[in-house]
Every structure is written in C-alpha cells, then in structure tokens.
C-alpha cells in the first residue's frame, strides 16, 4: 500500500482499557488517511477479547496519487 510506513508509527501506541470479553466495539474517527490508527485500535480491542470491531469514519483523506488512480 502507499502508506505502509505509517503502521510502525502507531504500533503499540494505543491500549485497550480493560477487558472487552465478547463485546462488539465501534470505533468512530473524524478523518481516515491511511487506516493505520484504526487498524491498531482494532488490533488492541481484539487482543482484549472483543468479539467484533467495526469502524465509522466521517471523512476520507485521499492523496494525489490515489485520486489519479480513480480517474
């Protein structure tokens, strides 16, 4: 992916606060650029026992390269 370099920047930055045994979790973010932050948050929730993690994003940031790829 274009922004794979961002994933190491968020590795281990977030931590689930308490057990989420069997819970469904919804993460809400105002803007998603690469998805690295959402992926790390979801990983932490699943590691804490969440059954399912969904994400809602208000806006998506596209880079010039991504815009060109779609037309």
How are the SSEs placed, and which strands pair?
Layout: H1 7-10, E1 24-32, H2 36-47, E2 52-60, H3 64-69
Parallel strand pairs: 1-2
Radius of gyration: 14 Å
Shape: globular
Helix content: 25-40%
Order of helices and strands: HEHEH
Distance between termini? 18 Å
**What is the count of helical runs?**
3
The main sheet comes to: 2 strands, parallel
Structural class: alpha+beta
Q: Outline the low-pLDDT stretches.
A: none
Overall pLDDT, averaged?
80
Percent range for β-strand residues: 25-35%
Biggest sheet, spatial arrangement of strands:
1-2
| Total strand segments | 2
Report what the structure shows.
The protein is α+β, with helices and mostly antiparallel strands and about 70 residues long. The protein has three helices and two strands. Strands 1-2 form a two-stranded parallel sheet. The two termini are about 20 Å apart. The mean pLDDT is about 80.
Task: List its salient traits.
3 helices, 2 strands, 71 residues, alpha+beta
Quick recap:
This protein is α+β, with helices and mostly antiparallel strands and 71 residues long. Helix content is 31%, strand content 25%. The protein is built from 3 helices and 2 strands; from the N terminus they run αβαβα.
